[in-house]
Amino acid sequence: MQYQASDIIAHILFIEDELSVSDALRECLELRGFEVSVVQRAKDAITLLGKITPDLILSDFNLPGLSGFEFFKEIKSNPLWNSIPFLFISGESTPEIINATLEAGGDYFVKKPIDIEELSSVIRGQLSQTKLKEESSEQRLDAFKKRVVHTLSHEFRTPLVSITTGSELLLEEYDALDDAQIKNLLTSIYRGGQRLERLVEDFMAIQQMDTGETEASFKQFLAPVSVGEMLTRVEDEVQIRLAHLYNNFEVNFAIEDSLSSLMINVCAPQLIDAFVRLIDNACKFTLTEKRIVNFNVTKEDKSIVFKIRDWGKGMPLDCSSQLQAVTPFTQIRREVHEQQGCGLGLTIAMHYIKIHGGELKLGRPDEGPGMLVSVSLPLA
Known about the structure:
- The protein has 380 residues and is α/β, with parallel strands linked by helices.
- It has three domains: 5-114, 3-Layer(aba) Sandwich (Rossmann fold); 146-203; 213-378, 2-Layer Sandwich (Heat Shock Protein 90), CATH 3.30.565.10.
- 51% of the residues lie in helices and 19% in strands.
- It has twelve helices and twelve strands.
- A five-stranded parallel sheet has the order 2-1-3-4-5, with helices on both faces. A five-stranded mixed sheet has the order 7-9-10-12-11. A two-stranded antiparallel ribbon has the order 6-8.
- Helix 10 (268-284) packs antiparallel against helix 12.
- The N and C termini lie far apart (72 Å).
């Protein structure tokens, strides 16, 4: 049966140095609807990959020059190629070789002599799995895009309404407004501007994380700081950044005197920002008349542990919820509970803590409602 171009199932890149094997196998695969490009050396395959993107790579394990296994590792290290299914064929089918290739991420190992029907089935199975993964990835990406658009449209629109409406009233009704009304409108405009500013800062932080600037800043500004000084600077920053957001909030900082002089190596701006974001979350999700947050410091082995406890509604502590909590542009039960923010705070805080060699844990207090967030950092 001859296949037309429109009937081609997939394009296979085949690397095989024995011409008799490659010619026979190519003919068998083409009779089954596959388009096959054959090269004899791995370096020729790399050159060809710069021009085409095959649906699957089939490679002999033993090749002259760059071996099949070395070629495989190069493919998997390249983000342009690492998602292409990769199958090995070899006459050396010892358990050690097979296990080594599979553990390194190879998709399948076909033994010589080759059963063409088996190989054809394996190839079709790998292509089907790849298609399902691509479809699933596209669905997740579409859902993520919709969530981002929905979140951002709300987060941009809400403060802009405050700014534009307040400005319009001031311009049109200024002579009819008393001082208290003017102050209220100016306050609304100011808070809208602050909310937009926080949104821009979050975007800049995410961009710096993606480009590696965050790690570069960490290395540049890393310095020893006492735990007591860090606590004081966090307390000051909380007043600067949160006092105008919450009319009735209280953050209680507590540390034993013996711990104040202990040293930790930190990039202070990043770590302070992480703590303020965690405290902001604690205030944001505490819906009682007075928002109370406890910030305690303890020592466990060779680590300093900062514990942030609130009395809010808490969150489910199953794995999927915790993963959702640190996923960008995601907030737990946002459709039920209206919260300001675009869902980046915990993502940014966790990133800062991780590059400090620390660990962030979400949990429940021993008693009462709320959340307990623990941040462990190694002592200097």
